[in-house]
């Protein structure tokens, strides 16, 4: 029988790849989207269909993680088999500027959704988008047993979501899991995250539209993987017999300077000729080094990351060069029919 999934954050990087994956697996997919004064559906336009077509399997619903009543109503109406909670204020630097908003969305938003599942009496499997940022100052390699030491309001909010997910699993017997994902990127990455900022700037410098790239801390080390591979891991976490928490990572760390080097070199440029330091991008507290140990996911989910940072940088630079050329978004391959299920 056709499975039904609800994805929050469907308009984001991961939500768009996950929606593609679930549709390819035959799911009926429902996505929560926020009302905005401009379109925020660019990443999913290419998979959206006319909701009146008989074979439509993607439905969008207005809602917000700050609106618990609406979430409960949607849960009752959709009655999903699987819920993926990907929605969040996901930018670490921004969380220092908006700590309270980040707390109510990225933290308390998760309990609103879990409570909506519980109150609606829906029997479903629940995925929580937890983050390596929860490890913060705990030294690498980090795995499922590493103590949390968050270093930003975002990291603190994600720790709350992690524990409330475990609490609902233990208190109410819910099939609720945490995917503790290390950084994962793609051509769909938001333009203010460092990898996309670098890739986009390389394309613009190559095209003669820019001559400098301003960055903050170049020494921070991250374990960068490729987002399409990570959404496959999310799905696998909900297909096993018992609910559990898993780290997804490549196991390899590179500095921001390394990533800049890979990206500029791919375009035939020397990064040191273009990258400048801007203190404005330095965070009040930094996470120096995140390198994940994905052994558990490999052993129990048969999941592993294949794409590493040098190849990822090349994928992202190529996509941004192509996007500049066609002045659009390279992943959109067919026209969109925009309308909403409710
Ligand atoms: P993203 O591109 O920033 O997408 C965030 C999504 O959340 C967007 O669809 C956004 O909607 C939605 N959203 C934000 N606030 C909301 C609210 N109050 N109510 C409903 N929806 C809201 O993030 P991503 O990179 O895809 O990451 C997906 C999830 O994984 C996030 O929870 C993130 O914190 C977590 N995570 C990401 C990484 C990573 O490296 N990418 C690693 C670990 C964990 P709009 O489009 O309307 O803004
Ligand atoms: O920063 C440094 C910055 O913003 C990476 C989110 O998806 O992954 C992401 O969080 C590093 C940091 O990602 C700039 O200081 C230097 O050390 O790309 P980022 P993030 O903070 O690691 C985790 C796992 C998540 O869960 C989050 O949702 O790069 N850096 N110069 C810079 N960062 C930015 N953004 N911009 C700069 O100019």
Automatic annotation (TrEMBL):
UniProt keyword list: Lyase, NADP
SUPFAM superfamilies cross-referenced by the UniProt entry: NAD(P)-binding Rossmann-fold domains (SSF51735)
Essential cofactor(s): NADP(+)
Catalytic activity: GDP-alpha-D-mannose = GDP-4-dehydro-alpha-D-rhamnose + H2O
GO BP terms in the entry: 'de novo' GDP-L-fucose biosynthetic process
Amino acids binding NADP(+): 126
Molecular functions (GO terms): GDP-mannose 4,6-dehydratase activity; NADP+ binding
This enzyme's EC code(s): 4.2.1.47
Pfam family of the protein (one): GDP_Man_Dehyd
Boundaries of every NAD(P)-binding domain copy: 6-316
HAMAP family: GDP_Man_dehydratase (MF_00955)
Family membership: Belongs to the NAD(P)-dependent epimerase/dehydratase family. GDP-mannose 4,6-dehydratase subfamily.
Name listed for the protein in its UniProt record: GDP-mannose 4,6-dehydratase
This protein's encoding gene: gmd
């Amino acid at each position: 029988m056709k499975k039904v999934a609800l994805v929050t954050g469907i308009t984001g990087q991961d939500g768009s790849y996950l929606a593609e994956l679930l549709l390819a697996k035959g799911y009926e997919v429902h996505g929560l989207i926020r009302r905005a004064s401009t379109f925020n559906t660019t990443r999913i336009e290419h998979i959206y269909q006319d909701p009146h077509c008989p074979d439509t399997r993607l439905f969008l619903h207005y809602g917000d993680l700050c609106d618990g009543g609406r979430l409960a109503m949607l849960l009752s109406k959709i009655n999903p088999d699987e819920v993926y909670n990907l929605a969040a204020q996901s930018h670490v630097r921004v969380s220092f500027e908006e700590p309270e908003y980040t707390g109510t969305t990225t933290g308390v938003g998760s309990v609103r959704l879990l409570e909506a599942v519980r109150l609606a009496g829906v029997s479903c499997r629940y995925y929580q988008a937890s983050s390596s940022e929860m490890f913060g100052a705990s030294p690498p390699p980090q795995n499922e047993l590493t103590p949390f030491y968050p270093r930003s309001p975002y990291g603190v909010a994600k720790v709350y979501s992690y524990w409330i997910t475990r609490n609902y699993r233990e208190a109410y017997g819910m099939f609720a899991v945490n995917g503790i994902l290390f950084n994962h990127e793609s051509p769909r990455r938001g333009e203010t995250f460092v990898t996309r900022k670098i890739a986009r700037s390389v394309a613009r410098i190559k095209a003669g539209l820019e001559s400098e790239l301003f960055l903050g801390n170049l020494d921070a080390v991250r374990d960068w993987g490729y987002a399409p591979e990570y959404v496959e891991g999310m799905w696998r976490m909900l297909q096993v017999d018992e609910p559990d928490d898993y780290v997804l990572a490549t196991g390899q760390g590179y500095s921001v300077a390394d990533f800049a080097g890979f990206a500029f070199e791919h375009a035939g440029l020397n990064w040191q000729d273009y990258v400048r330091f801007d203190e404005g991008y330095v965070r009040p507290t930094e996470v120096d080094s995140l390198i994940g140990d994905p052994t558990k996911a490999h052993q129990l989910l048969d999941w592993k990351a294949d794409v590493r940072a040098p190849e990822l940088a090349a994928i992202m630079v190529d996509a941004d060069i192509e996007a500049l050329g066609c002045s659009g978004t390279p992943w959109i391959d067919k026209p969109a029919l925009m309308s909403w299920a409710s």
